[in-house]
Input
Amino acid sequence: MTDQAWILIAVAVVVVVVAVVGVVALTSGRRASRGPSTTLPPVEVSPYEVDQAPGAGASAQEAPAPETDAPAVATPTLERPAPAAGRMQRLRARLARSGALGQTLLSILSRGELTESDWEEIEETLLLADVGVGPTTELMDKLRTETKVLGTTDPEHVRDVLRRELLQLVDPTMDRELHLEPVVGDDGEPHPVTMLVVGVNGTGKTTTVGKLARVLVAEGHDVVLGAADTFRAAAADQLSTWGSRVGVPVVRSDREGADPAAVAFDAVKEGRRTGADVVLVDTAGRLQNKAGLMDELGKIKRVMAREAPVREVLLVLDATTGQNGMRQAQVFAEAVDVTGIVLTKLDGTAKGGIVVAVQRELGVPVKFVGLGEGPDDLAPFVAEEFVDALLS
Ligand SMILES: Nc1nc2c(ncn2[C@@H]2O[C@H](COP(=O)(O)OP(=O)(O)OP(=O)(O)O)[C@@H](O)[C@H]2O)c(=O)[nH]1
Output
C-alpha cells in the first residue's frame, strides 16, 4: 500500500471515531437535560401522570451549604407541617361553639333539686347538639341516678360527674390509631400501606386528603397521593397543590372522567415503585344510589388490593350536616367497610354531639377531626381532650 492510501485510511478512522463520540455525547446530553424523569413506564391499566412536587426529594430541613462559588440556584422550599400530636389541645378554642353543650349542661345540673322541666331542658340540649336519641336517654338516666346519689350542687362535683359520663359516651377505649404497620407481600417485598378516603362531595374530602398527607409527612412517612376523584377535574389540581407544598407526588390521570379504579391502581403501583410506605387515595364517591356507590368503591378497593391490601377506609363527614350527614354515613358504611371517621368542620358548629352519634350508629371510631381551613387544622381525635374542651 502506498503512503497516500495509509493516510486516507487514517483520516477515515479519525472521522468515524469523532462521529461516534459526537452521537454518544448528544444522546447523554439530552438525557441529562431532561432531569429526573416523571414519565413512568407504561402500565397495564391506564397511562398516568405523576405530579412531582417541585423540590421533591428536597428536605424541609436546612439546605446544605453550596460547595462551589457558582451562583446559588433557588430550590423551592418545602413546608414543614406542624407535629400531629397535641393538635386538638392547640385547636381547643375552635370547639367553642360545641363547648356550649357542656356549659349548658353544667349550669342546669348545678341548679340542685332538678325539676322535670330542667330534665327536659337537658334532653333538648343534648338532642340539639346531635348526640342522638339513644345516647341522650342513656346519659340522662345515668345523670339522674348520679345527681340523686351525689345530692350536691357543688360545681366541681357536678363537673366531675358530667365529665365521667360524657367520656364514657365518647368512649376512650376505641382504637383510633391509623394502622400503618409495614406490610410484606407474598413475594417477600415490602408493600405500601394503602388508604382510601370516601365521602360525599363538599364534606371536605379532598382537603382532608391534603391535610392527612401533611400529618403523615410530619410523622416521617413517605407518601404518594392518588387523585381518583376523576369526576371533578379541579379536585386533582387541588390535590397536586397540597402535594407540592410538602413534596408528596400525586398520581392523576390526564383524562377527565377517567376510571377512578385505574388511577387508584396506578397510585399504589407508583407507591411500590418508589418505595413509599403510605398511599392515600381520594375518591369522588358520588351518591347517585347505593348500588352504584358499592360498585364504584368496591372496584377501587379490589383493584388497589391487587398491588397492596387496603388497610384503612376513612369516611369523611361534615359535622354541620346533622341527620342528613348520618344518613349518608350509613349508605357509605353499607357500601364499603369503613375503618375510621373524619369529622370535618367541627370548628364553628354547636353540633359536637355527632361524635357520639356517628360512632354509635356505625360502630367505627372518629379518628380525626377538622377544626379549620388551615393546612394543619386536622387533629387526631383524643376523647379526653374533646370532652375537656366541651366543659371548658
Ligand atoms: N371550617 C372548615 N372548613 C373546612 C374543613 N374541612 C374542609 N373545609 C372546607 O370545605 C370546603 C370543601 O372542601 P373540599 O375538600 O373541596 O370538599 P370535597 O369536596 O369533599 O371534595 P371533592 O370531593 O373534591 O369535591 C373547602 O372550602 C374547605 O376549605 C374544616 O375542618 N373546617
Remarks:
- The CA atoms of residues 54 and 244 lie 6 Å apart.
